[in-house]
Amino acid sequence: MKIRSVASSLVDCSRGNALIILSLGLPILIGGAGFATDTAQWYMWRRELQHAVDQAAYAGAWARSNPLAESDYRTRAEQEYAANISKVADFDTAPVIALADYAGGNQNSVLVTSTASKRLPFSSLFMNAPATIRATAQASFSEGLSYNACLIALRDEGNSLKIGGNAEVKARCGLAALSCDDDAIIIDGSADVDTDSIAACGRVSVEDPDLQGVIVENVAGLKDIYADLEPPTNDTPRSYNCTGRGRNKQASLQPGTYSSLVTACDTVLASGIYVIDGGELDLTHNSEVVGNGVMFVLKNGARMKLGGSGSSNEINLTPPTAADLLGYPNADELAGILVFEHRDNNPSGDHILNGNSDSLIEGLIYLPDGNLRINGTADVAAQCLQISAYSIDIRGGAELETLCPLNETTEVGSSIADVRLVA
Question: What is the pTM assigned to this prediction?
Answer without folding.
Answer: 0.70
